[in-house]
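FAQ: What does a ligand-bound record look like?

Like this one, built around D-glutamic acid:
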Amino acid sequence: MSDPRPIGIFDSGVGGLTVARAVFDLLPNEPILYLGDNARFPYGPRPLEEIRTFALEIAGYLTERDVKMLVVACNSIEVAAIADVADAHGVPVVGVIDPGVRAAVHATRNHRIGLIGTEATVASGAYQRAIAQTGADARLFSAACPVFVEHVEAGDTSSDELLEAARGYLVPLDEEGIDTLILGCTHYPMLSGLIRMVMGEDVLLVSSAEETAKDVYATLRASSLLQAAKDGESGEARLEFLTTGDPAQFRRVAHHFLGPVVGGVAPVDVRVVEGVSWS
Ligand code: DGL
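The answer part, i.e. the structure of the complex:
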């Protein structure tokens, strides 16, 4: 059995590329169709109901493009809509919160875990609930870091302004004595150098990307949806990038973070699926 259909991965912008990269590294034969909703970025400050509407539009669009599974590579979308996305589209759906929590709970030694994310993610309490579900006896200390994503989307990982914002968000968490910090927004692994500078080497940074890739693999395997390697070939899969925003800007930023795996980027309007306008 071999299923050549692509895996659909989506986010409000370039953040989900951290997850796409991990999936591509683990499963080089799997075609990926990545969609960034850059025109409506950022999602973090929006009401959950609005994020849910956007998520269903994107999932609907990707399903029309015949993806074999959906990866919600955005914490803010996951807290707003992952159950609805799963109900509406009939393909397996994988998110990023449980994988990140799993890794953090496994890693912490002092049971004091930090979480940084968007306003939507932090306010939802989803990480608190996910930690409780593991049965782990750990305390969670959270901080929303709203300006981080704007800098990432602009390709900035090291300006003075960003460093100052990072200190403002992170020093109070450091003072709580956490030994593990969950990067609870898929944009944040792109700032891990800067975050590490502020937090120091004693705090472990947890990105959900690699753990999520393992879930993608396990889900494809369990559903017999893997694409078999062609004889003597590997890493030949197609990566397609779509954005609702400016393709040139998306390409510039994506190339900065991912290098040459980013080829063409096509513009897309997810509100129009086969002549049906969602707005
Ligand atoms: N990458 C998204 C997340 O993981 C958030 C970015 C945004 O605010 O749009 O939450």
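Follow-up question: can I read anything off the structure? Yes, for example: The longest strand covers residues 112-117.
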